[in-house]
C-alpha cells in the first residue's frame, strides 16, 4: 500500500492561511491588551484592595486557573445565551481569551508587586507621593520590568492556546485549517503546515520580545 | 424529543471523570519517563544529545497542543495506521508532557549546586551513581512543587482530547448538552468537576512551594 501526501491544495489556499494567521495574532494581541488592564486592576485589588474585592478577585483567578480553557469557551459561547447574552464566535472567543489571560496575568503582576520591597513604598510616601502615584511609579513600573519575561511567555502561550477557539469557528488559523482540511481531505497536510506556521509565529514573537526587553529595560537594575 | 437534565445525565458526566483521570495518568507516567530522558539529555556532556533535546522542547513548547494532537491523529491515519482517539491523545500528551517536564526538571537539576556534582566526581562516583545518589534526589526535592503545578495543567489539557472524539468529562458534557439543550447547567457542572480535581492539587503545589522557599532560606 502506498500513501501519498498532497500538499498542493494547502499551498493553493495560502492566502486564507495567512488571513487566519493574522486573525490569530489580532485576537491574541487584543485579548492580551484588554487582559492586562484587567490584570492590573486585579493585582491592585488583591494586594491593596478592600477585603471583599480581594475575595472576589481570588475567586475569579482560582476558578479560571483550575478549569480548562475549552470548557470556558463552551460555557461562554453555549452557556451564556441562556442568560440572555448571545455572542458571535469572534466576540465569544475574544471574551474567553480576555477572561483567561486576565486571571493568569493577575497572578504574574501580583507576584511582581509583592517583589517590591516595602521600604521602597515607604520611601515613596515619605517623598509625599499620593497613594495612586505611589502605586503607579514606585510599585507598578519596576514590577512591570520584573514581570516582563513572564508576561511575554504568557502571551506566546495565549497565542498557542487560541487555537482552541477554532472549536466555535472563530476564524482563527486553526479554524481556517479545519475548513480547508474538510474541503480537500488533506487534513494531515493542512495541520502539519499550520503547526509550522504557529512555530514560526512563536519564535518570531519571542525574538521580538527579547529585542524589546533589551531596548526598554536597559537601565541598571538594583539586583 | 429533548431529554431533561436529570440524575442519569449528571451521572453520565460524573463517571466520565475516570477517562480524564486515565488519560492524565498515562500522559503523566509517559511524560515522567520521557521528561527524565529529556532533562538528562539537556544537561548531558554530549552536544548532540543536548541539541536534540533542546529542539524537541522548542517544537513542543512552540506549537499548540491541539495541533500536536491533530498532526498525530490525522498523521497516523494518513499513513494508514488507524488509531483510536485514546491512543492518539496518549501519544500526543505524553510527548507534550515530556517536553514540559524535561524543561522543568532541567532547571531543577541545574539548581543543585555544582559543587555537589564535583564532590561526587572527586570521590570517584560513576555518572550513574552521581545522578542517582547525589544530584537527582536533591533535584527532586526542588522539583516536586512545579511538577504538581504542571500536573494541574496536564489534567486541564486532557480536555482537548474531546475534540478528536475521546469521551472524557468535556466530551460527555457536550453529548449531554446536545440532547438536553441545557448548556449552561451542563458546562457549569463540567467546570465544577475540573475545579474539584485541580484545585486541591493547586493548593498542594502552593503549600509545597512555600515550605520549600522557607526551608531553602536557612
UniProtKB/TrEMBL annotation, chain A:
- Keyword Cytoplasm present in the record's keywords: the answer is no
Query: How does the UniProt record describe the way this protein sits in the membrane?
Result: Multi-pass membrane protein
**Which biological processes are named by the entry's GO terms?**
amino acid transport
Q: Which InterPro entries match?
A: AA_ABC_transptr_permease_3TM (IPR010065), ArtM/GltK/GlnP/TcyL/YhdX-like (IPR043429), MetI-like (IPR000515), MetI-like_sf (IPR035906)
PROSITE patterns, from UniProt? Answer: ABC_TM1 (PS50928)
GO MF annotations in UniProt: transmembrane transporter activity
What SUPFAM superfamilies does its record include?
MetI-like (SSF161098)
**Which residue spans traverse the membrane?**
20-45, 57-78, 90-109, 146-170, 190-212
The entry's localization annotation reads: Cell inner membrane; Cell membrane
Similarity comment text for this entry: Belongs to the binding-protein-dependent transport system permease family. HisMQ subfamily.
Stated name of the protein: Amino acid ABC transporter membrane protein 1, PAAT family (TC 3.A.1.3.-)
TrEMBL record, chain B:
Domain of life, per lineage: Bacteria
Query: Which positions make up the signal peptide?
Result: none
Is Cell membrane included in the keywords of this UniProt record? yes
**Where does this chain mainly localize?**
membrane
Instruction: Please state where this protein is localized.
Output: Cell inner membrane; Cell membrane
Residues annotated as transmembrane: 12-40, 65-83, 186-205
Which Pfam family is one of those matched by this entry?
BPD_transp_1
Q: Provide the membrane topology annotation.
A: Multi-pass membrane protein
GO BP term, pick one: amino acid transport
Record keywords: Amino-acid transport, Cell membrane, Membrane, Transmembrane, Transmembrane helix, Transport
* Gene Ontology CC: ATP-binding cassette (ABC) transporter complex
Which PROSITE patterns is this protein grouped with? ABC_TM1
What GO annotations for molecular function exist for this entry? transmembrane transporter activity
Alphabetized InterPro entries for the sequence: AA_ABC_transptr_permease_3TM (IPR010065), ArtM/GltK/GlnP/TcyL/YhdX-like (IPR043429), MetI-like (IPR000515), MetI-like_sf (IPR035906)
Question: Which part of the chain is the ABC transmembrane type-1 domain?
Answer: 17-205
Q: PANTHER family from the xrefs?
A: BLR6398 PROTEIN (PTHR30614:SF34), MEMBRANE COMPONENT OF AMINO ACID ABC TRANSPORTER (PTHR30614)
Q: What does the similarity note say?
A: Belongs to the binding-protein-dependent transport system permease family. HisMQ subfamily.
Q: Which NCBIfam families match?
A: HEQRo_perm_3TM (TIGR01726)
* Full protein name: Polar amino acid transport system permease protein
Task: Give the lineage.
Answer: Bacteria, Pseudomonadati, Pseudomonadota, Gammaproteobacteria, Oceanospirillales
